[in-house]
Amino acid sequence: MKQSSACKRLSLTALLVLPSLLAGNAWAEGRLIGGAPRDNEITAKFDGTLKLWFTGNIGERSPSLVILDKSGQRVDRQDASITIGERSELKASTASPLPPGSYVAHYRVITEDGLVISGIYRFSVKVNETQGGAP
Amino acid sequence: MNRPFLSIAAIALSTCLLCTSHEAPASVPLAPRQGPGGKMDMYGCMQSNDYYVANFAAFQMPPVAPGEARQPPTAQCLEIARTGNTQITLDLLDRDVRNQPVVIRVLDQKGKVLSETAPTVVKQGVTGLSVDFPTPGHYETVLYVQHSELNIPQEVSALHIPLLVATAPAVTPVAASQFGKFVLLTALAVLAMGFALPRLLRQSHNNGKTA
Known about the structure:
The structure holds 2 protein chains of 2 kinds. Chain A has helices spanning 2-23, 25-28, 129-132; strands at 31-36, 41-43, 49-55, 64-68, 81-83, 88-93, 101-110, 116-125. Chain A is an alpha+beta fold. Chain A is 22% helix and 37% strand. Chain B is elongated and about 90 Å long. Chain B has helices spanning 3-21, 154-157, 173-210; strands spanning 33-34, 40-41, 46-48, 53-59, 79-80, 84-92, 101-108, 113-116, 120-121, 126-133, 137-145, 159-165. By secondary structure, chain B is α+β, with helices and mostly antiparallel strands.
């Protein structure tokens, strides 16, 4: 009798918690987890490529990464590409070494089930003092 | 601890988890739309450029024959079936765009503005306008975003969506050939059944007699 009651309680708990866990997979469907340079980073060592990493079931449909300077001029080569993997990588390169200043990027990837993950990403380039001092 | 309290706590916890887990940082795609050639697209009618992505839909009231009940309008993609009054909707799938003023314009082939919205911030993501397509032909819906963070001229980042009104063929050759295949396969199946069924029945009848 006691066992049956415990079993009932367990089933009820599972019934209540399971939908929440399943719904929690919405987070697993894709989100931005980081990048190089990091969001809002001020860097002296920008290598000419912005890389953003995403988790989830990212698809190859319509990826986009646009880099703009402070005046709204586009500074990327329009070569955004995505490499699908456990940690999918969206990247774009700049046409020339970026002069010091602040930059804003607009990114977009789309998951296999059609969810759009897009947003604004910022970084700044500062003068590399070690290089600046070199002859 | 008493049982009702535990049950209420479990329900509350479950509801909270359910609510928070649905705050995914992404837009939810709309239901499939009729795409070019009458095909359904699982992404809806997703239109994008380097800056923005939106789900497009055009709605027209279907013609009603006398004595028939009026059907609800279905979402159409870039090939719009008829001229006349059409409701156009755009689902702005970029979250950041939902905090910026947007303008939608519908233009004819010569660039004349047929319909336009005032600059509006669309918090919920879905916006639209009504337009009257006077003649069959090519038109364009344009989404302009006055994006304060990107600081880019709205003409540069504008999302242009080309439309074809009342010029799409009703039945595509692909659809026709698929229908032909279906008819042929059905005919073959009926013939096979007609051949096999009497023999099977006779065999089972004979088996019954010998037993």
